[in-house]
């Protein structure tokens, strides 16, 4: 089986307080902020590796991200993926989920034949949950969302169990199919020292907009239907009033003021 796992390198949560907004484009300024793979990305990769171990084939990881995200894809190679593909071009900057899905679909088309695509249900930063469904639409294949288990793969079909309201849904669909996975699907493996060493010799390819035959007006801010009109911090006003006295007196005064405020 040829399995493609789409990853989303996102700013490390440890540095979120350092992220700034561009006053003109309203986009996040991520320069100097290290990126990490989100927990659902790792679970999508883990599921791909488990399927490969059971059914054979290859696991290819792909991401649309700046050049600095190479380290994140190398981490995925160290976990056990066979090949890494980084879709990187300044023209991609500012892409919304629609434009991102377009870029990923062109990258997957360039790979050729595939049997299964795995994505996290949502990314660590944007958390829109749009990319999986949009990517499936671009590729013309079925999207099975909120998958908690891959129960069987045989005779060109895959049976999955997905979260739905008040329960689960068992669905059998024909391959190729795109799955978006949830936290419940598995626990990602640890990266071994041998895996880190082997990752250095595995194929790693970077494709630009030209390589994918994508014009600049289809991606980035120009090609994104979703536009940010404005971003601002609400003004916070607080009034402080000191209450003094014995504990019992202060409690009674606080209760009186709360009742007064509530009318």
Jot down its keywords.
single chain; alpha/beta; Rossmann fold; 9-stranded mixed β-sheet; 6 helices
What is the overall shape? globular
Percent helix among the residues? 25-40%
SSE string: EEEEEHEHEHEHEEEEHEH
CATH architecture: 3-Layer(aba) Sandwich
Mean pLDDT: 91
Beta fraction of the residues?
A: 25-35%
Here the CATH topology equals: Rossmann fold
Describe the structure.
The protein is globular. The chain has a nine-stranded mixed sheet with strand order 11-10-9-12-8-1-6-7-13, with helices on both faces. It has one domain (2-218): 3-Layer(aba) Sandwich (Rossmann fold). The mean pLDDT is 91. It starts with a strand and ends with a helix. It has helices at residues 39-55, 70-79, 97-111, 131-139, 193-199, 247-262; strands spanning 2-6, 10-11, 20-21, 28-29, 35-36, 58-64, 83-87, 116-120, 142-154, 157-164, 167-174, 177-181, 204-207. Helix 2 (70-79) packs across helix 5. The protein is an alpha/beta fold.
Helix/strand layout:
Elements lengths: L1 E5 L3 E2 L8 E2 L6 E2 L5 E2 L2 H17 L2 E7 L5 H10 L3 E5 L9 H15 L4 E5 L10 H9 L2 E13 L2 E8 L2 E8 L2 E5 L11 H7 L4 E4 L39 H16 L1
Parallel strand pairs: 1-6, 1-8, 6-7, 7-13, 8-12, 9-12
Antiparallel strand pairs: 2-5, 3-4, 9-10, 10-11
Helix pairs in contact: 2-5, 3-4
What is this structure, in a nutshell?
This protein is α/β, with parallel strands linked by helices and 263 residues long.
């Amino acid at each position: 089986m040829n399995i493609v796992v789409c990853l989303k390198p996102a700013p490390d949560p440890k540095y979120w307080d350092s992220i700034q907004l561009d006053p003109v484009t309203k986009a996040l300024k991520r320069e100097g902020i290290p990126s990490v793979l989100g927990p659902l990305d790792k679970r999508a990769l883990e599921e791909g590796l488990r399927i490969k171990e059971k059914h054979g084939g290859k696991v290819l990881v792909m991401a649309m991200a700046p050049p600095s995200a190479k380290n994140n894809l190398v981490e995925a190679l160290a976990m056990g993926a066979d090949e890494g593909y980084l879709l990187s071009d300044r023209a991609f900057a500012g892409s919304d989920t629609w434009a991102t899905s377009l870029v990923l679909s062109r990258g997957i088309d360039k790979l050729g034949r595939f049997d299964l695509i795995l994505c996290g249900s949502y990314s660590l930063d944007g958390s829109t949950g749009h990319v999986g469904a949009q990517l499936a639409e671009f590729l013309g294949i079925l999207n099975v969302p909120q998958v908690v288990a891959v129960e069987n793969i045989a005779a060109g079909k895959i049976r999955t169990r997905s979260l739905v309201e008040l329960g689960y849904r068992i669905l059998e669909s024909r391959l190729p199919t795109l799955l978006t996975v949830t936290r419940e699907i598995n626990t990602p493996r640890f990266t071994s020292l041998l895996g880190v060493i082997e990752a250095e010799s595995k194929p790693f390819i970077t494709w630009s907009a030209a390589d994918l035959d994508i014009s600049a007006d289809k991606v980035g801010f120009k090609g994104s239907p979703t536009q940010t009109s404005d971003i601002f911090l609400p003004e916070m006003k607080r009034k402080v009033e000191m209450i003094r006295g014995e504990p019992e007196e202060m409690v009674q005064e606080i209760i009186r003021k709360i009742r007064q405020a509530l009318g």
